[in-house]
Design goal:
Blueprint: E1 5-11, E2 17-23, E3 26-31, E4 34-38, H1 43-55, E5 61-65, H2 71-79, E6 85-90, H3 93-103, E7 116-120, H4 123-129, E8 134-139, H5 154-157, H6 159-168, E9 169-179, H7 184-192, E10 196-203, E11 213-220
Parallel strand pairs: 5-6, 5-8, 6-7, 8-9
Antiparallel strand pairs: 1-2, 2-3, 3-4, 9-11, 10-11
Length: 232
Amino acid sequence: MQPWLEIARARAPDGTELRLDRRGDEWVVRCDGRVLMSTRQHGSEEALALLAFAQAPHAQDVFVGGLGLGFTARAALEKLPREGRLLIAEFTPEIVEWNRQHVGEFARRPLDDPRTRLHVGDAVAHLLRAHELYDALLLDIDNGPSALVHASNEALYGDKGVAACFAALRPGGVLTVWSASGDDGYLMRLERAGFMARAEFAGARAGSGRGVRHVIFVAVRPRAQSSKARTR
């Protein structure tokens, strides 16, 4: 078996070490030694977008939190109309650089699509300023609400972050969130904020019913509800 080769190394803004490794035609990003994303297993990342568009098929303004290897963004672009707009928020500049220089071809270079805009910075800070700007929010940040690698991402999944997501969506809009595992507490926070929420399972490998399965939270903002999310 071929050994893993380290291609690049970076430190996220919160100090966490990230590493881009390659073995043959497979690429992975590791966070403090743990595999965070892989070019071979991205079915659930694509499901994040597909479930959002299944709920909001006419979405035109879409926010993707977390560029990763680009698979969520590409799946969203495949569903987005020609006049649509996709904003990708990525916290770590090196992830953007790695996508442009090394791994962009795997997801057919979503950053080069004319409908794509890029925000290098904090997704929560952006969402706090986004009042009813989006038809869909697709969040693939960290390992989900409970299996956090970056402690700084906790704010996104707490009451404040959930309320920010609710307010950033237009009535009828949808929030989908990738997670390594289920989280009843997060579902309760979504419902408490005013969302109609559920959890779906998605295979890590596209088109395969076997192997690792991840969770996609699907939360819909009702059309007739106030933009002021309820928190306790």
